[in-house]
Amino acid sequence: MRRESPTAALRRLGFTDPARAQRLTEGRDFAAVLDALGESPDPDQGLLAMLRMADGAPEAFQRITATPRLLSAVSQLCGMSTALGDILITHPDWIDGLGAEPTINPDAFLTIGQHADTPWDTGVTRLREEYYRQLLSIAAWDLMADHPLERFDTVAALLSDLVSAALSGAHALARATIPGSDTVRLAIIAMGKTGARELNYISDVDVIYVAEPAGDDEAAALDTATKIVTALTKAVSAPGSAPALWPLDANLRPEGQDGPLVRTLASHVAYYERWAKDWEFQALLKARAVAGDPDLGAAYVDAIQPFIWSASGRDQFVETTRHMRGRVESTIASRDAARQIKLGAGGLRDVEFTVQLLQLVHGRVDPSLRVRSTLDALAALRDNGYVARVDADRLEQHYRFLRTLEHRIQLQKMRRSQVLPEDDGQLRRIARAMKMPGITTGEELESAWRDVRAEVRSLHQAIYYRPLLPEAARLSDDDISLDRDAAADRLAGIGYRDPTRAVGHIAALTEGVSRTAMIQRQLLPVLLGWFAEGPEPDSGLLHFRILSETMGRTHWYMKLLRDSSMAGHRLAHILSTSRYLAEEIPKLPESVRWLEGDSELEPRSIGALRSELDALISRRTTPEGIAMAGRYLRRRSLLRTGLGLVLGLIDTERAQDSITNGAEIAVQAALQAATKKILAEFNLDEAPSSYLIVGMGSFGAREMSYGSDCDLLFVHQPHGDEELAQRVAVSIASAVMAMLSEGTEEPALRSDADLRPEGRNGPLARTLDAYGEYYRRWAETWERQSLLKARPIAGDAELGRQFIALIDPVRYGQGLTDAEDRDVRRMKARVETERAPRGASKARHLKLGPGGISDVEWTVQYLQLRYAGQQSTLQTTSTMTGLDAAMSAGLLSEDDGVRLAEAWLYAQQLRFAIALGTGRTSGPRLDVVPTDSTELANIAALLSHDLTARHEVEEIYLRLARRARAVVERIFFENER
Questions:
Q1: pLDDT tens for residues 154-197?
Q2: What CATH class is the domain 818-974?
Q3: 2, 196, 623, 735, 741 from 681: Cα distances, Å
């Protein structure tokens, strides 16, 4: 085998300039060093530092090369950071212990400051050197990790503890220097990442100072405390013989830069009680006493807790916090925005603000959320159901990635930065230091960062902008409490009629330790208020319980209600407003998913339903299964239509069309199923006829509502034996009607074939020729009128065209003789007399009352019978289209046409509202305006979203009906020929 050249070996180890590395190490025993550097972030950079150490500190270098752990630690440090490499070269004696898991030694700092005879400059230098010595051990241990993301939180805690120890040492040093320091107690409160024990390598250290006099002179004590604080700030931040540690930032104190540097505890409390802004309470979330008087520090932390955990109840707290997040993004320099890993979109602040807002909103009633660390808080939010497990886990992993990336950026030159560099060499160094699969080059690092950024942004927007958050924040403490007695009083006060029973529902939903119960405890305080916005909050809560118990622990259900931008509020509105939907949704619980947006609530076209039917019957091959598939799709259509109406997404005419499509698909499936069944019973391989089902009445007109029957005509065209064909066709027609109504698996569709020739005395199915013969010889005026709404629904398309060609001359082409004209008027008068509803006010009857649906439709049909032969625009099955055509043709004045249209549409709206509001979909009361106050409130809420408009419902309908009736009487009865 060909031996590998030295430069090739070095290139394999990761050296980008192997020739130079070979030249620099020629004649030196550097084999082990080169191998160790091959594992480092930047072997070329590390080699230069190791060469300097070998020449400048040969004894230390020999110890390093003789100890594998030390060699690995120093190689990692030198390969990552020129700044840390320089420190090692300057202080080679600091290599002791590198590579082992570090422990922070606060005593080393305190000892420096507790010696009063230590000169100030000497004490400061020793304090800073001790800090950097211990920092080296943290960085070495961090860089040696095989999986640094998993070690991030420990590293951040060590850095925070190191800062706390240095502050304690600086405090002691300052006290030893300032005269009279024993007259004041001083506590240092860490804020931000230091307070949360999640600090970076290089960062400002945010602090607040609180002081109390040891004697009686408060002013003198505060003056002394200010001198101590000024001195300790110089100790860690001022120029000196040893590099400064970090800026000490006290701008988070009350009044910021304009406020006194040091305050008493009482002064702090007074400020937070009266003047603090929302962002200040968010900042206090991470406050922790880290140095100085421990009792005073603990007293401060205890005193601010009530302010933190009641802050979300402040007016517009959530909205203000969200606005602040947007303002932070807007301050990013445009040149850095695209590479900002902290403040930019998808950066660290997205995770931190998301976590903190959820903590502040829900933490006032859930102590488990009262933690400082972002990762600890995220775990608590996950474990207690506030964030979905998968979302929390992704956020945690991404936060670890971003924070580790931030650390690696800062370690390179020990400079404060949160901007991903553009230099290829720096990117490669960082990528290798991340030690993640698939990330070894700058391009791979940037790609991974973009993916993380996109998902963090998406999760932030989904969680941070939940509508549940501002609603929960607006609740009072009494509102958010689910204590039985308090809840009962609150429920009674906001409109629940049976608060005791409502409390029982709440208990059933929230008791226990399951994740579902946890999420219910978050949702219910808000949902209870949303239910109370509807006319029947008790019903809303009851049916929410039924739905939730039906769904059990279905993973997506609770997550949707908690996280969706609209589903929870929509569901609450629906359940407390529509009895029909409240009862139907638990039967089809997947429909809750439709509430997340508008697209799923759009009515389905008959073509789309046909495609769904084809997919369903590919798995349901029995006749009964095929028929039930069609009825199942109709049930979905009924539910989807109701949801669209209640949410104001569709109007009356689209709702009618949608319900008609649902009935149409059910009839199509029934015909397919019946044909299959009857052919098998007759032992036939092929059908002896072509079959057609024609829709009549509101079905043919595409004007069905929830209580509408399905009026049908059955047509067939034999291919051979006519007697056999007739028997089979009648059997199929009978089977279709049975399949539409029998069985309880899916809602029945009432069908009626009484509009066929000879009515109930005639055969259930006829041939096309038989229909032609009958209509030619025997059709009465009422039958011509009924054909005005005839429309092919299911079966053979060509036969459908032939049927329409057959009936068009019958319904449109003949006009009306004087006798037929009088016949129509008499029929109208007889209908009004004989079909008037019993036991109900005629004026309140939507269909048969004066100015009601029947009046308008008879008027349109009368005009069609008279003029459709001359005016082709009148040749339509639609009432509204017919009205428009009559106005355009001058057969109706615009004023009369508008009056008829308004009355008809409002009556149809009322029919929908009665069905949806009361839950009645059949029976005589469906077409009568209710007198019950609660039912009227439901109807008013559905029509106008105004519960107080219940009496206006009656007044509007009666007024519109009176105006329409005047038109009807003028057309039908004032100008009789």
A1: 999 999 999 999 999 999 999 999 999 999 999 999 999 999 99
A2: mainly alpha
A3: 84, 78, 12, 12, 20
DSSP, res 558: H
The string of pLDDT tens digits covering residues 546-566 is 999 998 878 889 889 988 878
Q: How many residues does the chain have?
A: 977
Query: CA dist 450 to 338, 393, 401, 457, 824, Å?
Result: 10, 18, 12, 11, 75
What does the alpha-carbon distance between residue 133 and residue 140 come to, in Å, rounded to a whole number? Answer: 11
Tokens of 245: 């540690």
Are 33 and 66 within 8 A, CB to CB?
no
User: CA-CA distances (angstroms) from residue 429 to 72, 135, 245, 432?
Assistant: 16, 20, 25, 5
CA dihedral 860, 862, 863, 867 (to 10 degrees): 140
Give residue 667's identity as a one-letter amino acid code: V
> What gap in Å lies between CA 16 and CA 115, rounded to an integer?
51
- How many whole angstroms separate alpha carbon 759 and alpha carbon 762? 6
Instruction: Estimate the crossing angle of helix 120-143 against helix 82-90, to 10 degrees.
Output: 120
Q: Which of 922, 959, 925, 921 is nearest to 845 (CA)?
A: 925
192-246 per-position pLDDT tens digit? 999 999 999 999 999 999 999 998 899 999 999 999 999 999 999 999 999 999 9
Q: What's 315-474's CATH class?
A: mainly alpha
Please spell the DSSP secondary structure of 398-420, one letter per residue: HHHHHHHHHHHHHHHHT----B-
**CATH 1.20.120.330 domain range(s) in the chain:** 315-474, 818-974
Q: Which residues contact 880 (CB under 8 A, 6 or more apart)?
A: 653, 901, 904, 905
From the centroid of its chain, how far is CA 263?
Answer: 44
Contact by Cβ (8 Å): 750, 692: no
Beta strands, E only, 115-259: 184-190, 205-213, 248-249
Residues 6 or more apart whose Cβ sits within 8 Å of residue 832? 848
In contact, 43 and 15? CB cutoff 8 Å: yes
Report yes or no: 662 and 589 within 8 Å, Cβ to Cβ.
Answer: no
Query: Per the structure block, which two tokens stand in for 532?
Result: 């109370």
Q: Which long-range contacts (CB under 8 A, 24 or more apart) does 141-146 make?
A: 141/73, 141/99, 141/100, 141/101, 141/102, 142/407, 143/40, 143/41, 143/73, 143/76, 143/77, 143/80, 143/411, 143/433, 144/72, 144/73, 144/76, 144/99, 145/435, 146/435
Return the amino acid letter for 450: R
Residue 972 DSSP label: I
Handedness of CA 771, 774, 776, 778 (dihedral sign): negative
Provide the terminal-to-terminal Cα distance of the chain, rounded to the nearest Å.
117
Q: Which tens digit of pLDDT belongs to each residue from 6-43?
A: 899 999 999 999 999 999 999 899 999 999 999 999 99
- Written as six digits, the tokens of 809 are 């001359």
Q: Which two tokens stand for residue 584?
A: 């139907």
Per residue in 902-950, pLDDT tens? 999 999 999 999 999 999 888 777 888 888 888 888 888 888 766 566 6
Surface-to-core class of residue 588, CB atoms within 10 Å of its CB (0-12 exposed, 13-18 middle, 19+ buried)? middle
